[in-house]
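Q: Trace token order:
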Amino acid sequence: MREKPKIEEVIVVEGRYDKNTLSQVVDATIIDVGGFGVFNDRQKLALLRRLAETRGVVIFTDPDGAGFVIRNHLKGALPKDKVRHAYVPDVYGKEKRKRKGGREGKLGVEGMEPEVLLEALRRSGATFAGENAAERVQHITKADLLDAGLIGDGSTARRAALVKELDLPEHLRPNALLDVLNLLFSRQSFLETYCQKAEKEI
């Protein structure tokens, strides 16, 4: 049996089915927050803060609106410099165990293929034990997004197209998109690809 990659950070998911799915893909400490229950669970938030400080955490919620509400709550409650974000793409369907799909019709973490989950964790910047991944320079700024037409007047369609091109969830806000772009690109490669594309469209 193939050995599962070991993740050094603690992975935080919405529920136990997400935890079960991820535990079959990676060797990691995985904590489920019980969905919206985390809003009133001070003990769990305190535990997550301690884990963030000592190990770092990767927030890995579903790509629907509810998942982003939970993600944003955790993002505000945990130390920013200790948190990474993993995103799965929008894939429509329903999980096998469910009689019907969610309100937005999207698969959650539990419904994703193993390779999709691994790719999402790599994109997040999670630390894979024993791997020496080359570090990307993280200097893309909001001014660069403005130059690329990804924020500001008339940017909504261009931003939606980029999110779709990169297989990211549609609910991604500009600040979160900036974080993801800094994980995926060096500033130079981003400018060459997207700012030049924007200039040609003018």
The longest strand covers residues 10-13. The two ends are 54 Å apart (CA to CA). Residues 187-201 form the longest helix (15 residues).
